[in-house]
Task: structure prediction
Amino acid sequence: MQEREDSKLIIEMRKTLQLGDYRPEEMRKGLQEYRQLLRARFDSDRHRQKMGLADFLKTPAGRDWGSEGPLLLVLFGRNEVGVSTVSHSWLSPVAVDLVDNLLESNRTVAYENCTESSTLVGVISRLIFQLLEKSPAVIRRGNDLHDIESQLSLGGQDRVIALRKALLRIINLQNDRVFIVLNRPDICEEESPAEYIETMLSLLKDAKQGLKIMMVQRSEIWDAEKNRRGIDTQGIDQRIFQTVRFDQCRVRAE
Result:
């Protein structure tokens, strides 16, 4: 009976979020296909440096990521000159491997692989839906469902704010740590990466548990360090907001 009620709740929430027939299981299938593409573009290149999750975790930034506290980590860098790809970052395997690892470990993770047509409203909506589909029980309690639906019913300029509040509430209702991974918000045409970063920072600021967020970007498109001064970080402990650059290198032939 409860599973039937949960299924009904999920269907209604998908309508409220204006997600059409979006299904997280299709996202997971797409994640595997995308990793195969990245493997062909980067892992198989014997002339250039590659980085997956295991390589990243050995770096100082990777050790910080593995710490207990909250963190927004923006990984950015340049593909090595001559890489035969325009659309993809050599750091994206870190994001994809991380999500795959968290899913395999049954951790609470929400992921978005951004495209040119992605919008902040759409991204937040899909993050909300992924978390709710995994743990629908979190909004069975008290007035949580009513309050969240009231927030999601708002439109216009207030919709991003309403979605952020709903996402934060869902994060705070979880029983364990939540992970959010955004791959390539730098290619989104409607909003700048700064808007994505500020939204994620606002979640980090108000989340009750040690929220972990990773974003991957290409510095050729948007340099996170150069643009950091333009990001609103008021009230944010700078230790929990890190921008780390990794430029791909050519591997010397032995």
Remarks:
- The longest helix spans residues 24-43.
- Strands lie at 71-77, 108-113, 178-183, 212-218, 241-245.
- The chain has a mean pLDDT of 87.
- The chain has one domain: 2-245.
